Amino acid sequence: VLGCAALPTVELKIEVVLPEKERGKEELSASGKGSPRAYQGNGTARHFHTEERLSTPHPYPSPQDCVEAAVCHVKDLENGQMREVELGWGKVLLVKDNGEFHALGHKCPHYGAPLVKGVLSRGRVRCPWHGACFNISTGDLEDFPGLDSLHKFQVKIEKEKVYVRASKQALQLQRRTKVMAKCISPSAGYSSSTNVLIVGAGAAGLVCAETLRQEGFSDRIVLCTLDRHLPYDRPKLSKSLDTQPEQLALRPKEFFRAYGIEVLTEAQVVTVDVRNKKVVFKDGFKLEYSKLLLAPGSSPKTLSCKGKEVENVLTIRTPEDANRVVRLARGRNVVVVGAGFLGMEVAAYLTEKAHSVSVVELEETPFRRFLGERVGRALMKMFENNRVKFYMQTEVSELRGQEGKLKEVVLKSSKVVRADVCVVGIGAVPATGFLRQSGIGLDSRGFIPVNKMMQTNVPGVFAAGDAVTFPLAWRNNRKVNIPHWQMAHAQGRVAAQNMLAQEAEMSTVPYLWTAMFGKSLRYAGYGEGFDDVIIQGDLEELKFVAFYTKGDEVIAVASMNYDPIVSKVAEVLASGRAIRKREVETGDMSWLTGKGS
């Protein structure tokens, strides 16, 4: 709590990341500022000097920094209600739960969603946009996505009035970085051994490193990545293709210095020797570890047809890839191969930049396997209304070039489509080739199987993120691969907790989102194998909720313009309660709000 003088509270010293500019639109904002730092590849990681510190606000604000106001009468809020209240220097989320009032930051630190529109349940509030959860007693982040927690403010009741007292600075920051240990290892930055080595600096790798520091771990942590950049918001690449790398950074470079998390960029691991607990990098640099997290993510699949070597046939994996697509597509003819999330997001983004956008897909409708025929068709119509042309139930048979550059895409249906740029979004494969001879178990598709604690078959070696299969607790421990941003966060945390022998298990309900033409679709659950889709609302108007069922049970939900229903369903599933098909068939949603049976 950022304490203020007048009320007796326990004061905790807080490290807070520098204030940032107000978040932009929901799906396009990025957290933090940062800049890339190259790994020299000379066998030594860069050494961080102790005087390089993240500047932080003073942990004990003076009374002048505080503001206090009566915000409502005690009877103004019912139990289970939330309200945004104004303190002059900023808004606060006021929550009444079990007769007690709590005051918290009012915006989700992930993308700035108004939490008052979220879901209050079991002592936590869940974000309406992307499902992050915050404890109302502490403000702590309890489920992902995002990295930061909420500020918790002081509440007192006097003469039936509710007063909130807060630091002005905290009101303006709207986010709180949890207290973290610093690295006190004398060998940090110099030696060829580390206590924890993390391969892959996506969400899983970063959250693992941060969780270790939050839990008081003060030994050396090395995070290595193939990328040129510090950890960044990868889902944004396909939604906003011309965003610059520094706008995508999840943490500024000062953050990594302050907490002694060493990042090796452009560092490729080529072999893992589990017997001697050592990895070898492409440049010959060797690093010993005592605990290892493998979070290498995946690599985009490429086309294998005739002419695949012509120029301007691209996949998207890095900010440079995304920026290049926009640069080449401006005013030109674009063909997108694959009508999954990446392909459709790219197609939507390019409609205003390119001369024409066409989508080629093997299925009858976009997203068919994931969202079903009817939802897929409704989304397809939205794209057609935005001048996107579809070539369905066919695939690319040839890429034709002129002077080495793409000119036409030939389809198996024998149609020829003019194309200056082709973006391939036909899925990805786990980037685990470097583990083949390691003794670390891989399945037939190259995924790393782990248990609920994110442990591989080798003691001390953990894995997380897009490259793993793990047992999904609320689907009878079925072994699944869920390549979602939010799942990677959760798995990174569980891996860190188990490196510290805390016996944590994966229990997160999967949650994802997509954004196209300024409209968001949210999704929670795991719908693979659904045998029916029950739709409430209006598909044509794109204001609907779709329940995916298997037998008698709801296994997933998707919605557009129906917040916070996906977060509500996620909360119900997270509580361990099964949702029956008959409950959603009637159109009566009272069971969701707790007013029904």
TrEMBL record:
This chain belongs to the protein called: Apoptosis-inducing factor 3
Q: Which PANTHER family match?
A: APOPTOSIS-INDUCING FACTOR 1, APOPTOSIS-INDUCING FACTOR 3
Organismal lineage = Eukaryota, Metazoa, Chordata, Craniata, Vertebrata
- What's any one GO cellular component for it? mitochondrion
Record key words, sorted: 2Fe-2S, Apoptosis, Electron transport, FAD, Flavoprotein, Iron, Iron-sulfur, Metal-binding, Mitochondrion, Oxidoreductase, Transport
* Single GO BP term: apoptotic process
Q: Which family does it belong to?
A: Belongs to the FAD-dependent oxidoreductase family.
Q: What does this protein do?
A: Induces apoptosis through a caspase dependent pathway. Reduces mitochondrial membrane potential.
